[in-house]
Amino acid sequence: MNIRELLNQKVQQAMQAAGIPADYSAHLAPSKKAGFGDYQANGAMAAAKAMKTNPRELAQTILDNLDLDGIAEKTEIAGPGFINIHLADNWLAQQTATLLNDPQLGQEKVAAPQTVVVDYSSPNLAKEMHVGHLRSSIIGDALVRALEFQGHRVIRQNHVGDWGTQFGMLIAELEDQIEDGEAAEFALKDLEGFYQQSKKHFDEDEDFAKRARDYVVKLQSGDERVLGLWEKFKRVSLHHSEEIYEQLNVTLKEEDVRGESAYNDDLPKVVAALKKQGLAVEDQGAQVVFLEELADKEGNPSPVIIQKQGGGYLYATSDLAALRYRTQSLQADRILYFIDARQSLHMNQVFTLARKAKFVPDNVSLEHHAFGTMMGPDGKPFKTRTGGTVKLASLLDEAVERAAALIAAKDPGLSEEEKVEVAQKVGIGAVKYADLSKTRTNDYIFNWDAMLSFEGNTAPYLQYAYTRIQSIFRKAGVKPTDLAADINIGTEAEKALALKLLQFPEVLDQVTREAYPHVLCTYLYDVASLFMKFYEACPILKKDVDTATRNSRLGIAHVAAQTLKTGLDLLGIETMEKM
Ligand code: ARG
């Protein structure tokens, strides 16, 4: 149990003993201001109001019943009825010692694991991945890692766009090039160029456009030869995405791909079910659901087209089919979507409709975790100098090159091999961290210099803090595993750091509940900053430090290092022993 849960339980018990009904919350949280203790319980005020008694007196009765023996050194009432809890140094020291050899760093595996389906990355396969795919891929991956760390059963779903009219165009192009004697793999070597070329043919050549449209029909009716070409296209395109995931240290694998095409056979069933329930109606030859729930200001219901005139299905139809699959076959308790904020209306329509049609049981949580746009230095969506989309592969290459130049300039005495490793981890880490550390829902400005800085809330700063602790251990000639589990807390700096380290599971709770990785970033930055203060105030390697003190401080340093490493790993960012 983490500190917050423990204290919450204790205060809750005291509240009940004070005669407060069980449904009143203790409102317990870490104190926001110094001088108000380490944690604060604010529940007395609301309870007193309902019970029509004096809040300070009620807070006193709660305190009289509060048993924090050995845990807190002081409790007090402040203001109108806040209860401030000051934790005892001894207790914090004991708790910190339990983290020394705990790979979970106090995060017990959850007692009731949920099945969580996470839909993320999900690029359209027609083109190369571009910067617009960065956020979904890395934010989703951070959540997946954190949920698994807590012990949930996570099912990744890469809902790639591998179906639809653009594939007719691409297949027509592929066939032309194969006829010209190119192997499919060769023709598709430059995915982006291939797409542009087929688009050009489609727009300019009437014959080609007609063939492309015929291919769509053939593809959808299961023509084997056309399906074969489509498979080839898909394979090359997916291979490209896998290379990006590898470079980005994103955990998505081939088996996580379940694209729009996987739901092809379910689409008529979805439409039939919606018609049968009287939800879908014919409108100008199309099948449409009008959602009153999402009506605009004038009261016009929000239309969702689920089948076009002529029979074609839409993005929303496959999302509805995917929801049925995720709840019925995958048995999800919670389904998270990491998609750009510009698709908020779409997701809202899909969720509303799925609930209405009872495709999704009431107890399944459907969550669209939207994010803002990555902007260039000019404050407009990030583009190349000539206004084109930036390929994710080139952005990542540039990150590694820039990191390599920085490392070379710093010249920390690394071998060539180490330099390559460090450049990779720092470059990719910097890009990811710069993104993950911003509040997900906001747009942010992409800035190379800021993200690669060794100062401030950046990946290099945190990676450096980690290597710094490793170098302390090298200098001390001690292995962390040799440390006796004996920790003492005697100074403010030790206490502040230890308390922070013990809050790791609380932070993860918030991260996975709200799907906000920036909360973890802020936390890790606090850990690194508190470590630097601790190291300044509490020398470890100096001669006059006695062995017990030195070992205790090494112990705290080790837990700090493990917390940084584990936390960064949950963000998909790697650490190294030297840099
Ligand atoms: N392929 C879509 C796009 O690139 C994103 C898919 C997101 N997931 C979903 N279930 N709709 O815009």
From TrEMBL:
Q: Where is the DALR anticodon binding domain?
A: 462-579
Q: Which reaction does it catalyse?
A: tRNA(Arg) + L-arginine + ATP = L-arginyl-tRNA(Arg) + AMP + diphosphate
Q: Any idea where the Arginyl tRNA synthetase N-terminal domain is?
A: 1-87
CDD domains attached here? Anticodon_Ia_Arg (cd07956), ArgRS_core (cd00671)
Q: Which InterPro entries does the protein's record reference?
A: aa-tRNA-synth_I_CS, Arg-tRNA-ligase, Arg-tRNA-synth_N, Arg-tRNA-synth_N_sf, ArgRS_core, DALR_anticod-bd, Rossmann-like_a/b/a_fold, tRNAsynth_Ia_anticodon-bd
Q: Where in the cell is it found?
A: Cytoplasm
Q: Where is this motif: 'HIGH' region?
A: 123-133
- Name the UniProt key words of this record, in alphabetical order: Aminoacyl-tRNA synthetase, ATP-binding, Cytoplasm, Ligase, Nucleotide-binding, Protein biosynthesis
- Main enzyme class: ligase
**Does ATP-binding show up as a keyword for this record?**
yes
Q: Any keyword DNA-binding?
A: no
What EC number is given for this enzyme?
A: 6.1.1.19
Record-linked PANTHER family: ARGININE--TRNA LIGASE, CYTOPLASMIC, ARGINYL-TRNA SYNTHETASE
Cross-referenced NCBIfam families, in alphabetical order? argS
Q: How does it assemble?
A: Monomer.
Kindly give the HAMAP family that the UniProt entry links to this protein.
Arg_tRNA_synth
Which named protein is this? Arginine--tRNA ligase
Which source organism does the UniProt entry give?
A: Pseudomaricurvus hydrocarbonicus
